[in-house]
Amino acid sequence: MSDLLTIPAQETGVLRLFALDMPREQIRFLNEAGALDDVLGVSGLDTEHVEIFAVGDLDDLGLRGYLTEGHAVPEDQLGADLADVTGHVLLLHSRAFGGRAMTLNPDAALVPIGVYSVTPTDWTARPAPVPSSARPNTGMPRSPREARARARRIGGGIFAAVMILVALLVYMVIR
Hints:
The protein is of the alpha+beta class. The protein is built from five helices and six strands; from the N terminus they run αββααβαβββα. A four-stranded antiparallel β-sheet has the order 3-4-2-6, with no helix packed on it.
């Protein structure tokens, strides 16, 4: 239980789940400024990283699926009793504490369900091979001067071929 209540400084990748055993009016009140601080016995929570929702709103996904699919909690961390959770829950992300060490003193209406470590995203990847067609200047002249010289050679070759054809045509007509 002490793991659930003590938050170390600079903690990342941890979710704390509580069942809310309180009337709907009080649950709606938790969205007011400072209300979460009061029920958790702390001050300065970042409410952008706190979720309050009804488990029934998750439909077929369920709470287990929400934690595994939506938050990358490994399946082996979740107990079988998670399926029995109904009503509203409070999900605290590590970022809600702003990197500060805190000790939670939750109200009796917050029933601890569990603490879960999130699998961090692996952002590393080996570089993809670059095909030669995607490399810059592949098959193209390296400078404008080379481009002009190549165009002159092509133009000169076409002009020479046309002149030879004209000369042959004139020779055949005169003959």
